Every structure is written in structure tokens, then in C-alpha cells.
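Students often ask why inverse folding is considered easier than folding. One informal answer: many sequences map to the same fold, so there is more than one right answer. In these notes we will look at a single instance of the problem. The structure comes first.
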């Protein structure tokens, strides 16, 4: 790396660490193209340097460590499907195989930066969430050797009480679970699956998720079988407001999906309202004025109703709330409602609040289907 590029890179890195929310780094960003290509490993370090956050663990309120493992990227997105319509995780990945030694090296380096021992000594329960920008259980994304090393390390850490990973349902297999529990023993292991919605038409044709309810149910049923002998849990992500749904339809589908998950035996659900990620189909529609993320009022309606209807814990993610590309109400209530939702995630309480903008939301929900086209969509070109 030349001194000029190094200087530019470190200037960029300082900006990224101090203000990551305003800088989404992609290989195609002209301004950072040169040093992105030569310094992606360092950018990876910047991406995952986050403070521990309070979270609702299975044992109650605790702390969570977030680690992003370097991977080639989600196999579904890298395949001919092009991936899900709202997801840009592929932009943060290497797009080529990564040596086990490199994954292990970066994992060790990042884990060493967390001050979890002090929290543990203070009596806090600690979970670790391992993100792979895809499926942790897919050996093509996280090779078995690297996966086993990470799990052995965590299994021997008394401070870590829960291990959380994400995976598509087709990778939840008996042989994989057997290998994992041979390593981690009785430590709690949660598999989070992006179900998004129980409506197959929406999931297949509007989200382009690539699996049906039968595949999801097979994975959850297998997890339930393993509960008889292992400390395993399941979580389903619910996507609030996919494209081509009205505000009312989006609310109804999210609520229905939570009930579907509870009836199936899912342990908890996490609602993820849409935010506009760069390079996605959802962004193209948003730029054309054909799509908007949900109102924050809609997310409150969703989470309040779910908590009334189901007994399993229901969380609401607040990423992007109040931003131009995320759920939005008005400047008067955006911030306050975001904090109220975060607080309610811990005690699973109802959120009560009022603002002048709520009338506008009610009107939009009430009349959201009036101008809806009745023409079935057979094909929606990506470009």
C-alpha cells in the first residue's frame, strides 16, 4: 500500500469508526474503491468494533457481544437467484473462499477486544451473536474447521452462556447439530432463521427468499426434537413491510406470522422493519417513489398486537428508525418511540404514546388498499 493510499485509508477508517451509520462501504463506491480493494481486512475490523449492548437473553436481561465472521457471502445471494429483495449483506463480503486460518485469526483478534470478563464478574449473563452475512451452518460459507474452532473456544468460556447464530432452514441438519453439540455440550445454542413471513406468496415472489413453509417447518421440528437432549432454541425473523404490500397488509402479515411461529413451536420472534439498503431492489423502488418503509406507528401496532396474541417473547428491531431510509413518523416522536420500543423489548410491555402524526398514519392504513392494482404481477425485472 503506497503512503498516499495509506493516508487516505486511515482518514477513511477514522470517519468510519466514529460515524459508521453514515458510511455504508461497498466495493462499487468510487471514493473508496482503491483502498477498499487493498484493505478489506482492516475494514472488516472497523465493521465489527462495537460496544457490548444490553439484550434480552433467555436467562433475562444481559449483555450481548456481536461478532461478524468474514465469509464469501450468502450462497443464496451468490447463486442465480440474486438473493432477497431487501438484503445488501453481500456487499460486505469477500465474494471468494477464505482460508480457515484467516477466519480463526480474525475471530481471535476481535474477541480479544471485548471486556466481557468484567461484566461476568459483575454478575451479568453474556450471549455472543455470530453473524456470517449468511448461514453459519452452511460449510460453504463457514468451513467446518473454522466453525469447530470458534465453537470450541466459546464452549470453554464460562463467561458465555448463550451462542446465537443465523442460518437458512435448509442447513439445519441432524449431522450438523450433532457435530455442534459434541463440541458445546449443554451451552445454550440458538438458531435464528429469516422466515420473514408465513405467507408463501410474499416470501417467494416479493422477498425472493427461496424456501417454502415446509422447509422452515422441517427445520423447526428438528430443533424441537433436539430439545429433549440438548439446550437448543429457535428464533424467527419477521420482516415488516416487504415490497408490493400495503401498510395494512404488512401489519396483518407480521402479526399472522408471529402466531404461525408460536403454533409451530418457535421459541421467540424478532420483527425487523424494512430499511433501505444500497444496491437492492427495494432501494430501486424507493428511489422511484414506489415504496416507503413502514411507519413507526405500524411497527408499534405490530409488536403490541403480537404481545397480546402470543406467549413467546417478541422483539422489535429499531435499526434505522427515524432516518431517511428507515421507519419514520415525524421529528417530534421518532426518537422517543425508538427508545420506548427498546425499553419494551426487555419487559415485553405494551407501548402507549400519542402524537399529532398518528392521525395521518391511521388514514393511510385505512385507505391503503383503495388505489391498489388488481393486476397480478408475473415478473418484476431487477434492472
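Output (designed amino acids):
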Amino acid at each position: 500500500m503506497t503512503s498516499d493510499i495509506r493516508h487516505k485509508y486511515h482518514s477513511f477508517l477514522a470517519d468510519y469508526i466514529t460515524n459508521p451509520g453514515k458510511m455504508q462501504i461497498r466495493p462499487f463506491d468510487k471514493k473508496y474503491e482503491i483502498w477498499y480493494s487493498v484493505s478489506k481486512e482492516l475494514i472488516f475490523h472497523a465493521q465489527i468494533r462495537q460496544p457490548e449492548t444490553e439484550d434480552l437473553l433467555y436467562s433475562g436481561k444481559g449483555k450481548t457481544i456481536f461478532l461478524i465472521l468474514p465469509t464469501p457471502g450468502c450462497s443464496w445471494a451468490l447463486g442465480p437467484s440474486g438473493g432477497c429483495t431487501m438484503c445488501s449483506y453481500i456487499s460486505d463480503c469477500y465474494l471468494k473462499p477464505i482460508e480457515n486460518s484467516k477466519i480463526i485469526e480474525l475471530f481471535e483478534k476481535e474477541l480479544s477486544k471485548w471486556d466481557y470478563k468484567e461484566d461476568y464478574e459483575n454478575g451479568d449473563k453474556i450471549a455472543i451473536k455470530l453473524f456470517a452475512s449468511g448461514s453459519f451452518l452452511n460449510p460453504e460459507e463457514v468451513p467446518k474447521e473454522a466453525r469447530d474452532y470458534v465453537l470450541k473456544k466459546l464452549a470453554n468460556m464460562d463467561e458465555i452462556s448463550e451462542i446465537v447464530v443465523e442460518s437458512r432452514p435448509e442447513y439445519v441438519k441432524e449431522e450438523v447439530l450433532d457435530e455442534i453439540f459434541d463440541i458445546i455440550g449443554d451451552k445454550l445454542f440458538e438458531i435464528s432463521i429469516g422466515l420473514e413471513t408465513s405467507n408463501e406468496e410474499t416470501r417467494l415472489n416479493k422477498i425472493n427468499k427461496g424456501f417454502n413453509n415446509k422447509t422452515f417447518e422441517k427445520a423447526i421440528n428438528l430443533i424441537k426434537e433436539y430439545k429433549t437432549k440438548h439446550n437448543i432454541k429457535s428464533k424467527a425473523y419477521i420482516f415488516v413491510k416487504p415490497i408490493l404490500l400495503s401498510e395494512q397488509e404488512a401489519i396483518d402479515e407480521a402479526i399472522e406470522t408471529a402466531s404461525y411461529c408460536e403454533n409451530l413451536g418457535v421459541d421467540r420472534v424478532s420483527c425487523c422493519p424494512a430499511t433501505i439498503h444500497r444496491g437492492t431492489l427495494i432501494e430501486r423502488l424507493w428511489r422511484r417513489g414506489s415504496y416507503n418503509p413502514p411507519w413507526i406507528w405500524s411497527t408499534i401496532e405490530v409488536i403490541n398486537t403480537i404481545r397480546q396474541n402470543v406467549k413467546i417473547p417478541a422483539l422489535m428491531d429499531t435499526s434505522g428508525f427515524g432516518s431517511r431510509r428507515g421507519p419514520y413518523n415525524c421529528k417530534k416522536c421518532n426518537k422517543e418511540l425508538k427508545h420506548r420500543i427498546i425499553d419494551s423489548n426487555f419487559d415485553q410491555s405494551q407501548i402507549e404514546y400519542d402524537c399529532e402524526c398518528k392521525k395521518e398514519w391511521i388514514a393511510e392504513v385505512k385507505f391503503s388498499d383503495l388505489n391498489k392494482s388488481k393486476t397480478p404481477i408475473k415478473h418484476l425485472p431487477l434492472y
